[in-house]
Structures are given as structure tokens and as C-alpha cells.
UniProtKB/TrEMBL annotation:
Biological-process GO terms, alphabetical: tetrahydrofolate metabolic process
Pfam families documented for this protein: SoxD
Alphabetized GO MF terms: sarcosine oxidase activity
The protein's name in its UniProt record: Sarcosine oxidase subunit delta
NCBIfam families with a match to the protein in the record: soxD (TIGR01374)
Length: 101
């Protein structure tokens, strides 16, 4: 069973308590009405779809209910770290170097 550490609760819980929320750190445009259709589609649908370390949003739906971010390796499905929403994105290249040791 995959366990995920919730940084809000401070506990590790089974993945069945969580819901995936897509790529993390996607900023909503400051003025959406100023975008053309292509730019709006880019914001809504286009994601990096990285192979390897990927920053994602998760929600502890059957726990505290809060959103948080996680870095997960999309190849091994292992969570490298989790952090609260609003905290800066970790240096993914440094984490990848650390994981390769
Ligand atoms: Zn929680």
C-alpha cells in the first residue's frame, strides 16, 4: 500500500485517503479576459507531463481536507517529499541528484 505523508496533519496515511489534483504551481493568469483562445487553452490544458520528478497538488480528502503539494517520481510512483500549499517549489534537479545517490 502506498503511504503519503500529509504535511498539514503531520502523519503518513494510505493513498486511498487522498485525491490527485494535477500539476502544482500553475498560476492563474492575472487578467484572464486579456488572453486569446490559444493562451487560455494553454493555461487550462497544457501540462508538462514530466517523466521523473514532478510537482503535484494533492488533497487529503478523507483527513484534514487540505490541499498540499508533493514531489513524486512518475517512473517509480514514489513520493520524494510533500510540502504545504504556498511554500516554494523544491529544486527538482537537486532532489533527483540526491535520489540517484
Ligand atoms: Zn491532512
Amino acid at each position: 500500500m502506498l503511504l503519503i505523508f500529509c504535511p498539514c496533519c503531520g502523519v503518513e496515511r494510505p493513498e486511498t485517503e487522498f485525491r490527485y489534483g494535477g500539476e502544482a504551481h500553475i498560476a492563474r493568469p492575472a487578467d484572464p479576459s486579456a488572453l486569446n483562445d490559444e493562451e487560455w487553452a494553454q493555461f487550462l490544458y497544457m501540462r508538462s507531463n514530466t517523466r521523473g520528478l514532478y510537482a503535484e497538488r494533492w488533497r487529503h480528502t478523507h483527513g484534514c481536507g487540505r490541499f498540499f503539494n508533493a514531489v513524486r517520481d512518475t517512473v517509480s510512483d514514489k513520493f520524494v517529499c510533500t510540502y504545504k500549499a504556498g511554500e516554494p517549489k523544491p529544486d527538482l534537479e537537486a532532489l533527483a541528484r540526491e535520489a540517484a545517490k
